[in-house]
């Protein structure tokens, strides 16, 4: 039985750092956003083709071994098929159908068996006892809850929608910018779909707010580790300091390539920099869920960073 911790929610919520921290635990491999192994790593259609180890995904020894196990002598054909299955069955709109399959109400889509086979290959190639996938697609989490040979746990990570909208206002190396209305629409859709998974499988699901994680990194990591069946000490000290080693994330935030000491802290600069119209749009669209996730209608402005904070920022941020 392959154990997987699948992280759902919307992007720009600190899940890359969270996954890399969990990857520091004994017997854990963080694979990043595994969904993009085929499009970015094998087909080369994305702009984020590096493994977290610094090599191209197709050249990384771990991923070469995994791909050989599942794709045999024709990885291109297998990758094309995998992408077609993802588009046909593992988008957010498919969450309800995958949940019905997971509960035994209908026959499983072929994409589910393909997904299970990929995780099995990762476990065999890496020797890990837990695979952390920060893909954030609720349909994949739903599929895993009913996948053969998979013991799935789901972690739903939530961040203030105004913060994620401000982060999306600026393009990153591998993805273009997005407006506040579109970002918040995705935020709402992904979080509502994640809630559906949690209602269907409450014992397998845990919700974590980004703000709670950054306020108490060690305590939050302990909760997540217990949920995932991990023992040992959380990989962060009482001050939120940690040390990151090499990882094998297939894609995600470029910060996944960072190694060495980091400081886990909340990135609240958005409370000072976000334009008022964008904040009003994000607040209005997310209004039905703000209270549910304990976010204020009017966020408190953050204090300007002092010199100490600027020095810490060089070490790493969430």
Structure, described:
It holds the Pfam family Sulfotransfer_3. This is Sulfotransferase. GO terms for molecular function: transferase activity. InterPro entries: P-loop_NTPase (IPR027417). It comes from Actinomadura montaniterrae. The protein is an alpha/beta fold and 318 residues long. It has a single domain (2-315), classed as P-loop containing nucleotide triphosphate hydrolases (Rossmann fold, 3-Layer(aba) Sandwich). It contains 14 helices and seven strands. It has helices at 15-22, 38-42, 61-71, 75-89, 95-102, 110-126, 138-145, 161-168, 180-200, 210-215, 217-228, 270-273, 276-290, 307-315, and strands spanning 2-9, 28-32, 130-136, 150-158, 205-209, 241-244, 260-263. It has a five-stranded parallel beta sheet, sandwiched between helices. Strands 6-7 form a two-stranded antiparallel sheet. Helix 3 crosses helix 4, helix 7 packs parallel to helix 9 and helix 8 crosses helix 9. Residues 307-318 have low confidence and may be disordered.
SSE blueprint:
Blueprint: E1 2-9, H1 15-22, E2 28-32, H2 38-42, H3 61-71, H4 75-89, H5 95-102, H6 110-126, E3 130-136, H7 138-145, E4 150-158, H8 161-168, H9 180-200, E5 205-209, H10 210-215, H11 217-228, E6 241-244, E7 260-263, H12 270-273, H13 276-290, H14 307-315
Parallel strand pairs: 1-3, 1-4, 2-3, 4-5
Antiparallel strand pairs: 6-7
Helix pairs in contact: 3-4, 3-6, 5-7, 7-9, 8-9, 8-13, 9-13
**Average of pLDDT:** 93
Find the CATH topology: Rossmann fold
Q: What's the shape?
A: globular
In the CATH scheme, the class would be Alpha Beta
CATH A-level architecture: 3-Layer(aba) Sandwich
Q: Give the name of the CATH superfamily.
A: P-loop containing nucleotide triphosphate hydrolases
- Residues in helix, %: 40-55%
Largest sheet: 5 strands, parallel
Low-confidence stretches: 307-318
Major sheet: arrangement of strands? 2-3-1-4-5
Kindly give the count of domains: 1
Number of strands: 7
Report, as a whole number of angstroms, the end-to-end distance: 32 Å
GO molecular function: transferase activity
Protein name: Sulfotransferase
Organism: Actinomadura montaniterrae
Region (Disordered): 296-318
């Amino acid at each position: 039985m392959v154990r997987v911790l699948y992280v759902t929610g919307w992007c720009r919520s600190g899940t890359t750092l969270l996954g890399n921290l969990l990857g520091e635990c004994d017997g854990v491999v963080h694979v990043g956003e595994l969904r993009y192994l085929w499009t970015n790593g094998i087909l080369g259609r994305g702009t984020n083709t590096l493994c977290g180890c610094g090599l191209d995904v197709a050249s990384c020894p771990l991923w070469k071994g995994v791909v050989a196990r599942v794709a045999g002598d024709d990885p291109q054909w297998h990758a094309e098929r995998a992408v077609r299955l993802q588009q046909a069955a593992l988008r957010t709109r498919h969450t309800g159908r995958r949940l019905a399959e997971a509960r035994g109400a209908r026959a499983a889509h072929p994409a589910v068996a393909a997904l299970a086979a990929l995780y099995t290959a990762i476990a065999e190639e890496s020797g890990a006892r837990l695979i952390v996938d920060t893909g954030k697609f609720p349909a994949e989490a739903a599929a895993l809850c009913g996948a053969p040979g998979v013991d799935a746990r789901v972690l739903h990570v939530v961040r203030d929608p105004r913060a994620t909208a401000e982060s999306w206002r600026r393009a990153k190396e591998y993805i273009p910018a997005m407006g506040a209305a579109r970002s918040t629409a995705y935020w709402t859709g992904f979080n509502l779909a994640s809630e559906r998974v949690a209602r269907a499988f409450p014992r397998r699901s845990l919700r974590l707010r980004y703000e709670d994680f950054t306020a108490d990194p060690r305590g939050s990591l302990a909760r997540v580790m217990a949920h995932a069946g991990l023992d040992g000490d959380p990989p962060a000290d009482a001050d939120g300091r940690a040390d990151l080693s090499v990882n094998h994330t297939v894609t995600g935030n470029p910060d996944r390539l960072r190694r060495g000491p980091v400081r886990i802290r909340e990135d609240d600069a958005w409370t000072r920099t976000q334009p008022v119209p964008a904040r009003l749009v994000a607040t209005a669209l997310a209004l039905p869920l703000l209270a549910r996730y304990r976010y204020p209608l009017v966020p408190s402005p953050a204090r300007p960073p002092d010199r100490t904070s600027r020095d810490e920022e060089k070490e790493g941020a969430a």
